[in-house]
């Protein structure tokens, strides 16, 4: 069964939806000629079968559907009926209606430490050198340099192999001692995990014999390629497999004291619609099942999510390059906004400086200015995550400015936590598009500013070497980051230095 729906855009109408990874390509309007296809490979972070309109309309389906926009005409194709809802007035009205109908807030939220303190991830700093000494040194260095302690994620490299949830004792001979040492420094501890199983490991044979691994359409154990080689994949449609996976995670918590998990992988490209599994589902639905398993833990993080809005998961943007462009800092704001519009209120804007380790491995020096501007943009969002130690790779001036951004995030933590509480009850995003808050001021195409809630307009500097920042300030009275009271309703240009994070508080 397939469904096609064709509709015309209304005059001045703009649309957002489907994939956070495509946020920087939004909004779609009458001038757009583009296809957004959630089943076509653009699936590296959060998504939903949803498109929202600035004119109070939305499209929804039970399963993923593509949207082709060309000359104001929209052609939607999917396996199930694609519903059109109208009459909700604005983008905010459309979002609230879609949320209430299809992904109402569960009333739960992730651990409040995600919003009140920075998170620290060992990946960019240590790579696969996840040894006990290196991890403790990293954590201690953060505390000694005045960084507020918070959540520390031990990334890939701690385990024996994929599918074996045991510490590599050559790297970490005393797992409980390591976790206790991190707790003593004030950190909560998360471990990187995946639903993948090493194809050449002993665990592969055991799980295959118990029929717990995904099979291809030919009936052979499915072996899938990803960035780190080839692996089998747990069949999480099986209750037996889910119970085993959850049991391994709970055992880790009981035996070592870890507090939660970073759930990596789970992307659609690991699955096929015609795979053989315990309970037949689409490739997209496999991601949702993975989300359901991880949502049981108050300390969780996902990069891949599907149709799981309103639930208490931390949704992090896909790894970004160390770049000023749309593959790096330039995507941070529009893609974070897009996450929120898809129902993922508890979102994280990738690691400061970028989380794609390959982009730091080309012999070129780190761009200190880019690192600072990235920290400044993240500081005013719902979450802030760091990995690379600023004082190790930056000049003293740049490292000090990153610390200033971290302190600003701390200053805003009470407001951010209140917005997270609001999201828990209402489902509304923490980071919002300007047109979500100001529907009648023509700001649908503004992708370089955002609202933290309804009252703080944040306009980070996103261009290398910029000394001026132009902003459209909505109507009303505003207090600038420099303490000036300003009457809005027009475009304004401000001189900026490297220390400046232009922002305006509504009075």
Keywords:
single chain, 507 residues, alpha+beta, six-stranded parallel sheet, six-stranded antiparallel sheet, 14 helices
Describe this entry's structure for a reader.
The strands form eight sheets. The protein has a six-stranded parallel β-sheet with strand order 18-17-13-10-9-22. Helices cover 28% and strands 24% of the residues. The chain contains 14 helices and 30 strands. Helix 4 (132-144) runs parallel beside helix 5 (175-184) and helix 10 runs parallel beside helix 12 (396-411). With 507 residues, it is an alpha+beta fold.
Q: What about the largest sheet?
A: 6 strands, parallel
Side-by-side strand order of the widest sheet: 18-17-13-10-9-22
Q: Could you give the distance between the termini?
A: 54 Å
Q: Using DSSP, what is the number of strands?
A: 30
Quick check: average pLDDT?
95
Which structural class do the helices and strands define?
alpha+beta
Tally of individual helices: 14
Low-confidence stretches: none
Shape descriptor: globular
**Percent in strands:** 15-25%
Short synopsis of the structure:
By secondary structure, the chain is an alpha+beta fold.
Helices and strands in order, then pairings?
Layout: E1 3-8, E2 15-19, E3 33-36, E4 46-53, E5 58-61, E6 65-70, E7 73-78, E8 82-85, H1 91-102, H2 113-116, E9 119-121, H3 123-126, H4 132-144, E10 151-154, E11 159-161, E12 164-167, H5 175-184, E13 188-193, E14 196-198, H6 202-209, E15 224-226, E16 229-233, H7 239-256, E17 260-263, H8 283-294, E18 300-302, E19 305-306, E20 315-316, H9 332-341, E21 347-348, H10 368-379, E22 385-386, H11 390-393, H12 396-411, H13 413-426, E23 431-432, H14 434-437, E24 450-452, E25 456-458, E26 468-473, E27 477-480, E28 485-487, E29 490-495, E30 503-506
Parallel strand pairs: 4-19, 9-10, 9-22, 10-13, 13-17, 17-18, 20-21
Antiparallel strand pairs: 1-7, 2-4, 3-6, 4-5, 5-8, 6-7, 11-12, 14-16, 15-16, 23-24, 24-25, 25-30, 26-29, 27-28, 27-30
Helix pairs in contact: 4-5, 10-12
């Amino acid at each position: 069964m397939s469904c096609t729906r064709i509709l015309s855009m209304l005059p001045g109408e703009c649309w957002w939806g489907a994939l956070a990874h495509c946020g920087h390509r939004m909004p779609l309007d009458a001038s757009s000629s583009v296809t957004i296809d959630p089943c076509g490979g653009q699936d590296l972070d959060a998504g939903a079968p949803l498109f929202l309109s600035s004119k109070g309309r939305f499209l929804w389906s039970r399963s993923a559907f593509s949207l082709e926009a060309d000359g104001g005409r929209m052609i939607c194709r999917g396996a199930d009926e694609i519903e059109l809802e109208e009459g909700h007035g604005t983008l905010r009205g459309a979002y609230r209606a879609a949320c209430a109908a299809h992904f109402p807030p569960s009333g739960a939220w992730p651990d409040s430490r995600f919003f009140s303190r920075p998170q620290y991830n060992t990946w960019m700093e240590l790579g696969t050198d996840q040894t006990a000494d290196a991890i403790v040194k990293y954590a201690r260095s953060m505390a000694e340099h005045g960084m507020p302690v918070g959540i520390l994620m031990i990334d890939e490299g701690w385990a024996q192999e994929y599918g074996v949830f045991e510490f590599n004792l050559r790297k970490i001979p005393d797992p409980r001692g390591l976790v206790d040492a991190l707790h003593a420094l004030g950190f909560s501890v998360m471990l990187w995990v995946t639903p993948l199983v090493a194809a050449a490991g002993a665990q592969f044979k055991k799980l295959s014999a118990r029929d717990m691994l995904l099979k291809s359409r030919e009936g052979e154990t499915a072996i899938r390629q990803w960035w780190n080689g080839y692996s089998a994949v747990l069949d999480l449609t099986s209750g037996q497999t889910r119970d085993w996976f959850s049991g391994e995670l709970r055992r880790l918590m009981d035996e070592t004291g870890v507090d939660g998990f970073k759930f990596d992988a789970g992307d659609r490209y690991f699955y096929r619609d015609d795979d053989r599994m315990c309970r037949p589902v689409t490739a997209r639905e496999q991601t949702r099942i993975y989300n359901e398993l991880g949502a049981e833990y108050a300390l969780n993080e996902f990069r891949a999510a599907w149709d799981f809005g309103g639930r208490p998961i931390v949704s992090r943007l896909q790894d970004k390059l160390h770049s000023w462009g749309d593959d790096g800092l330039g995507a941070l704001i529009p893609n974070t906004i897009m996450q929120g519009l898809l129902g993922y209120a508890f979102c994280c804007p990738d690691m400061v400086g970028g989380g794609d380790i390959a982009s730091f491995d080309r012999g070129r020096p780190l761009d200190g200015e880019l690192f600072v501007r990235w920290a400044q943009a993240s500081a005013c969002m719902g979450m802030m995550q760091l990995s690379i130690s600023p004082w190790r790779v930056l000049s003293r001036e740049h490292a000090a400015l990153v610390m200033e951004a971290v302190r600003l995030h701390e200053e805003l933590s009470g407001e951010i936590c209140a917005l997270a509480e609001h999201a828990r009850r209402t489902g509304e995003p923490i980071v919002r598009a300007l047109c979500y808050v100001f529907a009648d001021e023509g700001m649908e195409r503004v992708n370089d500013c955002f609202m933290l809630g309804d009252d703080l307009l944040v306009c980070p500097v996103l261009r290398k070497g910029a000394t001026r920042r132009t902003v459209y300030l909505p109507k009303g009275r505003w207090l600038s980051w420099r303490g000036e009271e300003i009457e809005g309703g027009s475009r304004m240009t401000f001189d900026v230095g490297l220390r400046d994070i232009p922002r305006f508080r509504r009075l």
